[in-house]
Specification:
mainly alpha, 16 helices, 80% helix, globular, symport
Length: 377
């Protein structure tokens, strides 16, 4: 989900459904004495996963159409002309974060299957949900969309390189990379971006409506997907080893920290720093799930699929909660500042009135003020 809320591969879901149905009787016979939690993971709830897949596609359309209506050609051109922010994000996503994930994986002393999942997750940057969080955190929306598009395109070449460099001891030779979903996601993103910008140009009056739809409908879809994920994989909360919880919390925070520090070091403004940190903190979990579905046998999937789903749940939930808290805090500060400014303006207007008033009228004004105060008291 998380960035899990990115475009999923419907063909992967369909293949998974067929495999599950064909092997359900066999698995039930074999697993009668096994933990029912394992059975639950092995026979995934296909209907719920399909619902998440369709909601993800709707979310992609809603987010890109609504947020791209706030992006201008000049903003995109400016970031391309001065690509410092884009370069920082790409270097962090493709080089620094995989290296940090490899070090974290080695220091955690976890089994090979989970180590492989950490490596795959760190090698899959991007995700359209990062643009939504960049908007909610007052980041640079045009930069976020550019980074997401460029990282999705480059991941088709850099992802296998990272897996080859860091994963030669983790049986990465048989991994099937999701080139088709990545290419489709890139095409959809660019198409929706151009469509949103054209709507802004031709029909500027609908901008506010698109923004409201993107804010509220997008947030509602995210919450629904989180709930559906819990229903589909309730065992992810207690069937994942404790060591992996530390990795799940550390890896996204590591991306956030590295992205923000590097952007600060290169003297980027605060919206750019926020955007780079968010982009580096989120990963493309649907790509990870597609790799698992296409690369491993059903029994192996049972041992591997809970980790990315739990990673997706915790990162998406965390970002959503902090986004809501940030918006509430921003509204509180806005109303507080507005109230202070209104009282300050009233005082300034009164003083200006006294200063600009003719000298011969000042005693009369002062007498009226004093009489009003006396009468009120």
């Amino acid at each position: 989900m998380e960035n899990s809320l990115n475009l999923s591969n419907e063909d992967v879901i369909s293949q998974e459904t067929t495999a599950l149905r064909n092997q359900s009787c066999q698995v039930n016979n074999i697993s009668e004495t096994e933990n029912p939690i394992a059975q639950d993971v092995l026979l995934m709830n296909v209907e719920i996963m399909s619902s998440i897949d369709h909601l993800t596609l709707i979310l992609l359309v809603v987010i890109m159409l609504s947020f791209s209506s706030q992006v201008t050609w000049m903003q995109l051109k400016n970031h391309i002309k001065y690509p410092t922010g884009i370069g920082i994000a790409l270097v962090t996503q493709f080089f620094i974060k995989p290296l940090a994930a490899y070090a974290l994986m080695r220091s955690s002393n976890i089994i090979k299957q989970h180590a492989l999942m950490i490596l795959v997750i760190s090698a899959c940057p991007g995700g359209v949900l990062s643009s939504a969080f960049a908007y909610f955190y007052d980041g640079d929306l045009s930069l976020s969309i550019l980074i997401t598009s460029i990282s999705t395109f480059l991941s088709m070449g850099v992802m296998p390189i990272n897996l080859w460099i860091y994963g030669h001891n983790f049986e990465t030779k048989n991994l099937i990379l999701p080139y088709r979903p990545l290419a489709l996601h890139l095409v959809y993103t660019i198409t929706l971006l151009v469509t949103g910008m054209l709507l802004q140009w031709k029909f500027p009056s609908i901008n506010n409506l698109l923004i409201k739809v993107g804010n509220y409908v997008g947030l509602i879809i995210v919450i629904i997907c989180i709930i559906l994920e819990i229903l589909a994989f309730p065992s992810m909360f207690f069937d994942v080893p404790g060591k992996l919880y530390g990795v799940i919390f550390t890896l996204p925070l590591l991306g956030l920290f590295l992205g923000y520090i590097l952007a600060y070091s290169f003297r980027q403004n605060i919206p750019v720093r926020k955007t780079i940190a968010i982009e580096c903190g989120l990963q493309n979990i649907p790509s990870v799930l597609a790799i698992i579905s296409q690369s491993f046998e059903l029994e192996m999937k049972r041992n591997m699929i809970l980790f990315p789903w739990l990673y997706a749940f915790l990162t998406t939930s965390g970002y959503t909660v902090f986004s809501i808290a940030y918006q509430i805090h921003k509204r509180y500060l806005f109303h507080k500042t507005k109230k202070e400014n209104s009282s300050g303006l009233a005082s300034i207007d009164f003083d200006d009135g006294l200063q600009n008033c003719p000298v011969n009228q000042l005693p009369d004004i002062q007498n009226k003020v004093c009489s009003n105060i006396t009468g009120n008291s």
